[in-house]
Amino acid sequence: MSPPPPAGWLISSDPPATAPRGAGFSSTFDPGDGAIILNQSGRQTGVNHVSYWPGDPKLSQLLLSDDDAFAAEQLKSNSRLHVYIPLQPLASTMQQFAAETSMACDFLQRMADCESRDAGELFTVQRRRSLEDLTTAFFVTDELRHKDLARMGLENFCVEPYFSNLRQHMRDLIKVLASVASSVPDLQPDYGFYVKDQAEGLSQGLSQGLSQDLPQGLSQGLSQDFVRHCMIQAQLLAYRTEDPKVRVGAVIWAKGKSGCCDGTGRMYLVGCGYNGYAGGSAYSAFPQMSSEEMDPQERKYRYIIHAEQNVLMFRSAEIKEDEKTMLFVTKCPCDDCVPLIVGAGIKQVYTIGPSTEKKKEEKKDLSYKRFVELQGVQKFMWQKTPQAEDLS
Question: Does the predicted TM-score (pTM) go above 0.85?
């Protein structure tokens, strides 16, 4: 399978007023090599301008001519996304907010509970690794080399202090992305997204042409690297929500019959969504609080559109019966969303799975029994492999 597109796209700005707030996007961040992908999927999801980083580390390793730089700029100028702006500074509290919320993410917390370890310690180790990987992928560490690269048709970026500020903006963004990426730890082969029921998993896997070389008791769908990439996308989307207590993001990908020219092979993006109030509603239009003591009509969760609902309603492509379509969502789908997932034709769901704590499962506002009992859709849940269980 071809590698997924860069994980460093950060959605920002306001959704369209005609759509639920959890459905639309108007800008994104391109770390340097996503122009074709943005042409295809960006315009479908409502992107109207791109905040980009003028300097690709891969290009910095090559001796490019002025013609090469001109061709790259021509690609941008011919894009259907007409407005490209240099990378802007993040909010001053964004780094701290991303670190604190990522540390409390369900994937890390579930693993910390299983390992009897501190979630903060696990997060710190993973974040250090993610920071190194993302810096290598997105940042031109040699400032002079970066200036030489930018001068090829981009001389206006080299003026001080503008150039130094631009590089600092990129460092800050990489730190935020590293925090978000660390919320879904890369701990293969000990943890991953698997079907737990061996009989169901193997029978479904073989019928869909999946790999037979699976850990005992588990069935594997997509590669764990690709699943983690998609789940990080969903985690980024969750930062758009107006409900910071229950942040949920969701993305849908499908496997087509032929490959695309955007670097994702046969995989293509179907839709993105997150939980939020209906678009165009005033801040005071719906309740903003929720507690068990409140009257059900006064709780905010009755009025929030779920991420799964938004991603299905406002998807940018049709779900085809003869293609394998996959939903990636950062929290377990509730009973209200499960029928929509089945009815839409989703073949696989990747998620955290229901909480093992009874008090968390039996909320007055939400139930997850339908997902546990769901048949006909493969459920890949974040868990520890049996081999890792035996070693521990």
Answer: no
